[in-house]
Amino acid sequence: MRWRDLFHLALHALVAQRLRSFLTLLGVAVGITAVILLTSIGSGLHGYLLHEFSRFGTNIIKITPGRQDTRGGEPALPSTARALTLDDAAALARLPFAANVSPIVQGSAEVRANGRSRRTVAMGAGTRMHEIYSVNLAAGRFLPEETRDARALAVLGATLKNELFGAANALGARIEIGGERFRVIGVLEAKGRILHVDIDDAVYIPTVRAMALYNRGGMDHIKLTYDVNASLAHVLPAIRQTLISRHGREDFTLTTQDEMIARLVNILRAVTITASALGGISLVVGAVGIVTIMTIAVTERTAEIGLLVALGARRRAILGVFLAEAAMLAALGGLLGLAAGIGLARLANLLVPALPIATPWLFVCLAEASAILIGLIAGVMPARRAARLDAIDALSAQ
Prior knowledge:
Blueprint: H1 3-16, H2 18-55, E1 60-65, H3 86-93, E2 98-113, E3 116-125, H4 129-132, E4 137-140, E5 153-156, H5 158-165, E6 174-177, E7 180-188, E8 193-194, E9 197-198, E10 202-206, H6 207-214, E11 221-226, H7 232-247, E12 252-256, H8 257-300, H9 302-310, H10 315-351, H11 361-387, H12 391-396
Parallel strand pairs: 3-10, 5-7
Antiparallel strand pairs: 1-11, 1-12, 2-3, 2-6, 2-11, 4-7, 5-10, 6-7, 8-9
Helix pairs in contact: 1-10, 2-8, 2-10, 2-11, 8-10, 8-11, 10-11
């Protein structure tokens, strides 16, 4: 039997039972819709994370106090970790591959100025912090080199400046942070949010001042960017050796930007796979529906099968007809699911523009291929039953 004839026979059988065929392929469509929609959201978030991390600087290494050992055993007590100091940051800045180094102390404080107040992030940072995060200055300058007796200077994020001063010039103005007075020497350009920190809605002060403000004995962490030509395989051991020589042991943790991204991506992947598995349940239900509908079709068309066999149709052709029907049901259900999934993804993006959505077209093709494969597998048992019918018994069953 020619493929064209096989296609026409299968299509005629499906059209003859329109409602039943539609309800059957609907099960496959729901599963494909769920998988496409959830995958689109997961893929969009993945791309968003990569874009956000690159937008806020590249080649970044985060050094935090305390050893995070993943090899098992009891975790170290926080009190056993030596605090990171300004001298540690200065030692790292002297490494030949170090482009920018900034000690970071972060907390929340109430900022008052111009008769207004706002509780926001007050971050102690080094003079290179804005270069690490690739943030430009809109006016003035950034913090000067860190000293033990750093002056009470401050740099405002774009949002905080607008909240406190509006369109007025903030340079040279006096502000109050946690009850202490600071002079504004710079305003940053609007940059946005990096994960849970809004860089625009923050005030930046010298690290020493932040340590005194929050009564801290050391840095929360140190951020370092390295030269693009330097190899990470050389950079990490050099940083580790420098700090070990100062601390006497490895009581700190190095986290690269790639590791930060990988951790978040792994979480997203796990959530996406789990959510997609729920959509897969609908595909299983759709497969059961195909088995059921094809079994009924074989029963209803027993005489037709007997006539085809009596006219000389091969068993292989009978098998092909019913497999084609099952595959066509699944393919149509897959196409309907793809259209619904992509449409819902686009609609969600229109309704919630902040939600990053990207439909991977390779996955679209794989989803349709999977639907067809599920249809073929589901149709095997009814098709084999049809192919094994005896012509005389089938004709006498009419």
